Amino acid sequence: MRSKLQTLADAPSAIEARLSVGAWYAEGDSTDVAAEVLSRPERFDDLFECLLSSAVGVAKRAAQALEIVSRQRPDLFQEYKEVLFHELERQHWFVQYRLCLILPRLRLNAYDIERAAELFQTLLEGSQNALCVNALDGLTELALLDPTRKEETLWLIEAKMRHGTPAMKARGRRLLARLRAATRAA
Description:
mainly alpha
């Protein structure tokens, strides 16, 4: 017979239960979960654990909620930096899509920037347009952190824009403008 404590430990967290609702591809409750974690940061670990879920919908919605949280509280992610690198390599594209935006918001050293840039460049070779667009966004953020990466990033964006979809071209124009403005301001 299982103890009550063990049963509680095996039960999904309240956040996981909220992120479990709906078809895997549906947005679900991720925006509200992000707002809850922002107002109660002690719940961050529960949300981050959902990113590692084997349930595709839970991981997808957790990634979305985490991306929202990272805009205001990137400090919460710092102790999970290595996990984010690992997940960026192994997760489904729709989770990688969000991680490309989260990772550059962390405090990164030169080695981290290099690792992230290599991963993002690998993701650019994939077939998912949305992932490629966010990988370019991530590379741009890295170039803003490390100015020695600007020229290469400008070249990559221009190359992707030449043969890209309308979404790739639109994001490319925005990213080019941002990099060029940062270069002029420096």
